Amino acid sequence: LIKKLNEASCNVVVVPYNTKVEDIMKYKMDGLFISNGPGNPNDVSNVVDIINTFKGKVPMLGVSLGAQLIALSYGAKAEKMKQAHRGANYPVRNLRTNKILLTGQNHSFGLYDLEKTPLEVTHVNVLDNEVEGVLDVKNSVMGVLFNPETGAGISEAEYTIKEFVELIKNFGGEDNA
Hints:
The protein is an alpha/beta fold. The chain is 25% helix and 31% strand. It has 5 helices and 7 strands, in the order ααβαβαβββββα. It has helices at 2-7, 21-25, 45-54, 65-73, 156-170, and strands spanning 32-34, 60-63, 77-94, 99-112, 120-125, 131-136, 141-144. Strand 5 and strand 6 (131-136) form a beta hairpin. Helix 3 (45-54) crosses helix 4. The longest helix has 15 residues, at 156-170. It starts with a helix and ends in a 7-residue tail after the last helix. 38% of the residues are buried.
């Protein structure tokens, strides 16, 4: 994903999950990418605090664990799924385009109680109807639970990164492009 962000003319600075907000602010970033990673999203509350600090101030994209942390920052719940999603051929429907994507996934926590949040569900798993993507248009925040860099066919990573770059360009007007 870093390569895909670089190909989209994004300069990427990688910081550990426990970096202090003050240190992140020093980068004066145009967007915040919250990466995937192992574990229970409920155990990383410091990243939820970071997301809440930057929400509405910079566009954000979260992938897999990053998307789960974004949803938690809005008050959704992340709970262990009955059947984890692990594999390379999970069909996911993009609700905005109505296209089916073949995605790679590696997560065992699902998102619930999204109806209590301002997040729009953008993607759902065709097999079990689990949420696979969310969007907050007002704050330019998006997340996908699948790994876009492992999709089959047209690169979902390129599509996801393109959407993120558009959020950055349109955030606060054309001066941010």
